[in-house]
């Protein structure tokens, strides 16, 4: 007896998603499989980008459908980006989400979309389909050799023989491609900037860069002390500020040096006891090699980014302002600068601190603690969890483009001769930026990416201690929303810890992760035996790739593009005596014209959103839906409701702020690391 199966096939709307290749399909069910059937309607252009095509196939009763096997006959531009398939037969229906390429001259099996753990097994055919999918993925997603990532998280092995899988490539990005943004920014600056006949003055002539592009808002207030302190709580790296009750060792400071800088009648000791002093400390730079290179003519070029530290004071208006800066660790040769010193001494000291912050941010806070620690989770997931696994469904949207941008960063920014060699202090022949990244990784654990323990460790969790801290106030509600969302989804599928222990696919995920990606000591548990531990780990991962990455990435143009605010290198050694710096000295200290040009362009590119960006709170819903279970969809809806409430709270607060903080507004936070 023949059955009729109707397949409704959606092709992605992305540029180049459609195909003119001959496509055939085999339906596989618990009671057998159909013969291959070509999908071709007369006088119809099948599988155009964004199209929905329906086909009716007749075959024997196949029982419950397990998978669809699509074959692509190939040809010119034959690759096909299949979004999903709905199949109906009478009153029965099945959903097959895919959201991946069916490459020319290849066959792809699309598994039925109900979220299921591997056990209990409905059929041996279903079990083998899951295993075959993983075997194919493991061939595409191989780990880089341990020696290639020594001292850093595990990463995808990419070579000419094993290129980046097409499913990980950027899809049809034009204006959103960061390389395109760099090129357009460089062109716009050069087109609109007049040829300067005078000597380059980076403090003044930098404004010429912005005749063809937008001027960062802080450009007209960057010298202000309150602006300097504001960036510590809502700038590009708002995770360094800590409350202190004693001066750091080696930082000599007296009440006489602070005359007029504290509240009337307040001594330094009293300010410390009242928890009104805060510290920014970039000691991690202390032994990091700095750029040093001699050219063919014997001319030496050097750059500096000192292991500086800065004290901030919470004044009577409840605002922070910088109080004292030391550009090194040695009290004998590293003086402490204060606002009581000359205006150029003080301005130079602040610029050096920003340079220290920038080098630390780029390699540790940004590249390492978001991009590179996320990659092992992408790898373990793609290699060990098949499409129907609920954890795969939970994570996949948040991993889109991460492998692509990480490889782009390694080749374009971090590699020898890359952009970082040209513009940052820790770049160059001695690879100080790589040394810095490894040093940061040595100190790091995954729990460091959890905002509440981190804020508590730094003593700034309590608003009574630090009243105005937008990063904290925005990040914590988002963490809580993620924790409820992840806990709800996992709790739906794992009713007991024993079910997690007996989930062979998740246990292989854990073994792969800890063997090749992150050592177990970097994680919050030594064995994956409790659902609560998995909730904590996955909440941290999703928070990291969305919220935390947004916090340390999307203000790069505003923060770095007006280069004197935050240069990524200084061309002169930090001053060791007071009273010797004038305006010409500062011009000689900050980056050159070409270095500034690159810093503006990179900052603009890395702050750009892709033209197909997907946000945590996305208008019209997420592009790709992986779950179909009503209970899980209700959990998702609750998550989005919390995000909407948080969006409204952020907007209400920003309406009252002189300088809004918008990067952690949920409808502006990408789901994952895409740039």
From TrEMBL:
Gene Ontology biological process: lipid oxidation
Domain Lipoxygenase: 113-675
Residues annotated as domain PLAT: 3-116
Record's keyword annotation contains Ligase: no
GO molecular function, one term: metal ion binding
PROSITE patterns cross-referenced by the UniProt entry: LIPOXYGENASE_3 (PS51393), PLAT (PS50095)
InterPro entries in the cross-refs: LipOase (IPR000907), LipOase_C (IPR013819), LipOase_C_sf (IPR036226), PLAT/LH2_dom (IPR001024), PLAT/LH2_dom_sf (IPR036392)
SMART domains (UniProt xref): LH2
Pfam families: Lipoxygenase, PLAT
Keywords, sorted A to Z: Lipid metabolism, Metal-binding, Oxidoreductase
Protein's recorded name: Lipoxygenase
Organism, scientific name: Corallococcus sicarius
């Amino acid at each position: 007896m023949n059955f009729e199966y109707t397949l409704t096939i959606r092709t992605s709307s992305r540029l180049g998603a459609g195909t003119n290749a001959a496509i055939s399909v085999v339906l596989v069910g618990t009671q057998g499989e159909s013969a291959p059937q070509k999908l071709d309607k007369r006088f119809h252009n099948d599988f155009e980008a964004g199209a929905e095509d329906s086909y009716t196939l007749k075959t024997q009763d196949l029982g419950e459908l397990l998978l669809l096997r699509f074959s692509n006959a190939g040809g010119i531009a034959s690759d096909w980006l299949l979004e999903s398939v709905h199949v109906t037969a009478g009153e029965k229906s099945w959903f097959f989400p895919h959201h991946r390429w069916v490459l020319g001259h290849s066959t792809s099996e699309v598994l039925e979309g109900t979220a299921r753990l591997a056990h209990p097994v409905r059929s041996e055919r279903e079990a083998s389909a899951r295993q075959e999918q993983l075997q194919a993925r493991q061939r595409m997603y191989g780990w880089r050799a341990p020696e290639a990532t020594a001292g850093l998280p595990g990463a995808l092995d990419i070579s000419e023989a094993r290129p980046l899988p097409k499913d990980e490539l950027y899809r049809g990005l034009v204006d959103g491609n960061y390389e395109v943004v760099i090129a357009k920014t460089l062109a716009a600056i050069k087109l609109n900037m007049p040829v300067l006949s005078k000597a380059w003055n980076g403090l003044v002539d930098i404004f010429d860069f912005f005749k063809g592009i937008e001027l960062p808002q802080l450009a007209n207030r960057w010298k202000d002390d309150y602006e300097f302190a504001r960036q510590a709580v809502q700038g590009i790296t708002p995770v360094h500020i800590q409350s202190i009750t004693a001066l750091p060792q080696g930082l000599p400071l007296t009440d006489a040096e602070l005359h007029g800088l504290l509240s009337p009648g307040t001594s330094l000791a009293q300010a410390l006891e009242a928890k009104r002093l805060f510290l920014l400390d970039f000691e991690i730079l202390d032994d990091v090699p700095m750029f040093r290179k001699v050219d063919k003519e014997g001319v030496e070029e050097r750059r500096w980014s000192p292991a500086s530290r800065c004290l901030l004071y919470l004044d009577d208006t409840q605002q922070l302002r910088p109080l004292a800066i030391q550009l090194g660790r040695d009290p004998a040769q590293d003086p402490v600068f204060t606002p009581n010193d000359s205006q150029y001494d003080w301005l130079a000291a602040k610029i050096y601190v920003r340079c220290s912050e920038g080098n630390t941010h780029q390699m540790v806070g940004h590249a390492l603690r978001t991009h590179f620690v996320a990659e092992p989770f992408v790898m373990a997931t793609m290699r060990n969890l098949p499409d129907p696994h609920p954890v795969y469904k939970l994570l996949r949207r948040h991993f889109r483009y991460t492998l692509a941008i990480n490889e782009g960063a390694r080749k374009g920014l971090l590699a020898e001769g890359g952009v970082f060699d040209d513009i940052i202090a820790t770049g160059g022949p001695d690879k100080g930026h790589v040394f810095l990244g490894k040093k940061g990784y040595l100190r790091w654990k995954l729990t460091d990416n959890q905002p509440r323990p981190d804020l508590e460790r730094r003593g700034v969790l309590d608003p009574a201690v630090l009243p105005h801290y937008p990063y904290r106030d925005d990040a914590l509600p988002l963490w809580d929303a993620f924790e409820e969302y992840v806990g709800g989804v996992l709790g739906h599928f794992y009713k007991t810890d024993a079910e997690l222990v007996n989930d062979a696919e998740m246990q292989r995920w854990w073994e792969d992760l800890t063997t090749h990606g992150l050592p177990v000591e970097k994680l919050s548990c030594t064995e994956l035996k409790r659902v609560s531990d998995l909730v904590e780990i996955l909440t941290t991962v999703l928070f990291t790739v969305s919220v935390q990455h947004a916090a340390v990435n999307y203000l790069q143009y505003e923060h770095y593009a007006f280069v004197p605010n935050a240069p990524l290198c200084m061309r002169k050694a930090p001053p060791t005596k007071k009273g010797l710096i004038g305006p010409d000295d500062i011009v000689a200290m900050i980056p050159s014209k070409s270095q500034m040009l690159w810093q503006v362009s990179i900052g603009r590119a890395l702050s750009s959103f892709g033209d197909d960006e997907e946000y945590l709170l996305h208008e019209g819903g997420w592009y790709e839906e992986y779950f179909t279970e009503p209970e899980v969809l209700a959990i998702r809806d609750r998550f989005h409701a919390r995000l909407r409430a948080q969006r409204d709270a952020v907007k209400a607060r920003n309406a009252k702020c002189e300088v809004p903080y918008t990067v952690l507004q949920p409808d502006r936070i990408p789901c994952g690391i895409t740039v």
